[in-house]
Design brief:
Elements lengths: L1 H21 L5 H8 L6 E10 L2 E10 L4 E10 L13 H14 L4 H14 L2 H12 L6 H13 L4 E10 L1 H6 L16 H8 L15 H10 L5 E3 L1 E2 L17 E5 L5 H9 L14 E10 L4 E6 L5 E6 L11 H57 L1
Parallel strand pairs: 5-10
Antiparallel strand pairs: 1-2, 1-4, 2-3, 6-7, 7-8, 8-9, 9-10
Helix pairs in contact: 1-2, 4-6
């Protein structure tokens, strides 16, 4: 049995690696060559940050074939562990240290995300095309000068020191074996990345608001994130008929979410929430969260709720919707009682029919007995006469 499990695990690992590799290349042939070790499909940029009283690391996984960022992790805070991390260290060790920092809550999620968004904007496709030939020669120069101003503007920092190194590796292997998985979430690309790309491609030109100020929506979102060590991206369960409208949601009210398992991040979140069993089956049960509030603008509404184990559940809607809530337990028991009552009625309704059938059978038996007695009497009378 253990051999079968081992083979099943190997097949699952191989299938996962194939799926992840395809996201970094253009063709199946390229994916095959990557998995066979004939070519390498990516780089990991490791940037150590010393910013005023904060320290941190940024890890940028780049597809050298598609020439775009696959994943970006920014972890910045006051944990003493940051000081012993070195950019020349193995990326697995660095990721393990960052995962440990995430577990102890020794970093600032809001500042980390601001830095991550700034790095996303700075590393446009055009800029990556300039840097990739240098990275092929293991030359990390120009990375610091590209990132210094955007990070300072995003954090309102004064003094900054950056150290950078570049590793050539398999993007799929990094993502599959990432020790930060389930603890530190990758920073998503900003919605306005396309509009900001043109300015960000020029070193020294900031794409952040003047003086590094956050927008009103970003400030609202940061307030919710500041109280939680971990955030999970979810999807709102919508109920057009029985759902609760935005205006009627009350803080502490239970609302329903589901995990978008179509992405690697979603599968990781499903595992964190215990929705995947030992056989790899994903539960379709919704996740219950206690409503905290909504950060909104004219075009997007960010719904926040406290989930299991103090995870911050975060979903985004383009317009107000009716949010589903858990069904009261009484409704289920009531339905069961109703079905039981119907069954009782059916039994009661059949009783008179059964009684009438029983009466008819008894009458038929009496008539048969009477006819038998009469015939027997006639037979005796005839015998006497003869």
């Amino acid at each position: 049995m253990s051999e079968l499990n081992s083979k099943a695990d190997q097949l699952k690992r191989q299938a996962d690696l194939i799926g992840l590799t395809r996201e970094a290349v253009f063709t199946d042939e390229q994916a095959k060559e990557v998995l066979q070790g004939k070519i390498t499909d990516g780089y990991l940029v490791k940037v150590k940050i010393d910013l005023d009283s904060l320290n941190g690391m940024v890890l940028i996984l780049v597809s050298s074939i598609r020439k775009h960022i696959m994943e970006l992790y920014a972890v910045v805070g006051t944990s003493p562990t940051f000081r012993r991390i070195r950019t020349f260290a193995d990326h697995v060790q660095i990721s393990t240290d960052l995962g440990d920092i995430g577990k102890t809550g020794g970093y600032d999620p809001a500042i980390s995300e601001n830095i991550g968004r700034a790095v996303h904007r700075a590393f446009t496709k055009e800029k990556l095309e300039e840097l990739l030939p240098l990275w092929q020669k293991k030359d990390p120069s120009h990375i610091s000068e590209i990132l210094e101003n955007p990070i300072l503007m995003a954090t309102k920092g004064r003094n900054i020191k950056l150290q950078a190194e570049v590793d050539k590796l398999s993007t799929a292997k990094f993502r599959y074996e990432n020790p930060m998985k389930g603890v530190i979430l990758p920073i998503p690309k900003p919605d306005d990345e396309a509009a900001a790309a043109k300015d960000a491609s020029i070193p020294g030109v900031s794409t952040e608001p003047a003086k590094g100020e956050l927008s009103s929506l970003e400030r609202q979102i940061a307030q919710y994130r500041s109280s939680f060590p971990k955030e999970l991206n979810m999807k709102t369960v919508i109920s057009p008929i029985n759902g609760v409208e935005f205006d009627n949601l009350v803080e502490g009210m239970e609302i329903l979410f589901r995990v978008p398992t179509e992405t690697p991040e979603g599968l990781t979140n499903a595992q964190i929430l215990g929705l995947i069993d030992e056989e790899g089956k994903i539960s379709k049960e919704p996740v219950v969260g206690r409503f905290l509030g909504i950060a909104g603008s004219k075009t997007e509404y960010h719904i926040f709720a406290e989930g299991p184990n103090q995870y911050l559940l975060h979903s985004v809607e383009e317009h107000p919707v009716k949010v589903a809530i858990p069904k009261p337990a009484g409704m289920t028991s009531g339905a069961n009682k109703g079905s039981a009552a119907q069954g009782a009625k059916k039994k009661t309704g059949n009783a008179p029919a059964q009684d009438s059938k029983s009466s008819g059978a008894n009458l038929f038996m009496l008539m048969g007995a009477f006819v038998t007695i009469v015939l027997f009497g006639v037979l005796i009378f005839v015998m006497v006469i003869l």
